[in-house]
Amino acid sequence: METTSNPQFGLLDTFMPAMPTNDFLERLERTLDFKPIEKALHAMYPGKWGRPPCPPLVLFKMSLLQHCYGLSDPQCEELVKDRLSWRRFAGLGLQDKVPDETTLVRFRQRLVEHGLHEKLLTLVNRQLEQKGFILKTCTLVDATLLQAARRADNTTSGDEDAGYTVKKGQPHYGYKAHVAVDESHTLIRNVELTSANVHDCREFEALVKGDEEMVMADKAYWSKERSRWCERRNIGNGILRKAFRGQPLDKTTLLFNRLMSRVRCGIEKVFGWWKRSALYRRVRYVGREPNRLELEFKSICWNLKRLVTLTGA
Predict the structure, then answer these.
(1) Is there a domain that residue 287 lies in?
(2) CA distance 141 to 69
């Protein structure tokens, strides 16, 4: 099934530039090349016959808007209809019909079916590397908890892929987002999603790319085996040291921890933006795969926000 290309703007659309615009979206359009992403999305539609569906790049851009502003499918549909700047960013002319919420749902399902729910961030990051914004001098690793979309109780089974944990004495049911960030510009390099009961350190090796000069993480990640893992790969070990019973940390190690903490805390900017601006305190879906896609989009949104800031386009 062939997809239609981006719609051509008509006569009515010539009046759109005189109307209110969204500075962030215009700068993003100038900065990021969407063609490689569009090519990967078109691979999901290999057929040659049938009615052409909505252009996948339109749906991808609508998904970016949705996840950047923490919107539901109906809210995203209505706001794209209402805001000319959003309609223009998505590639829709005034005469074009805005894809409905059902189309967005099917688009996400197709992304998962074709395995793109774990590859979209890589497509975006290739351009960030080419532009020289991912320097690979130091990677920061950490994790944050996300509430489940549906809580388990006596009447429902909740989410089979979610799990329980305790943080600061409070029970938590849901997922855990494991994140690796390039320290230089706080750009997300890699993410993983697990149930909340999985310990932070379990995903360390999967997150670290191996091409960085140093890696930093909090005390939860410290172990002698992990130290040897870094040494074998010639990666500087900036993981905060942990004291053990009968083995308190000496002054030199305490100083090391303080110095590393000042740098490591940079990753908290990502979690802060997710939860305050993108409203990403809880997952929106039930099951790991759709929520893994949501994490991918949230990570892309953060990186694109940083890209526009760094380029000053």
Answers:
(1) no
(2) 25
- Cβ pair 61, 89 in contact under 8 A: yes
Burial of 240 (0-12, 13-18, 19+ CB in 10 A): buried
Beta-carbon count within 10 A of 104 CB: 20
* Mean pLDDT (whole number) for 122-147: 96
Q: Classify residue 85: in a domain, yes or no.
A: yes
The pLDDT of residue 279 is 93
pLDDT at 247 over 90: no
Final residue of a structural domain among 53, 79, 114: 114
Domain that residue 65 falls in: 12-114
- Mean pLDDT estimate for the chain: 90
Q: What percent of the chain has pLDDT over 90?
A: 81
Is 189 within the bounds of a domain? Answer: yes
pTM for the complete prediction? 0.90
Q: Are 94 and 73 in contact (CB under 8 A)?
A: no
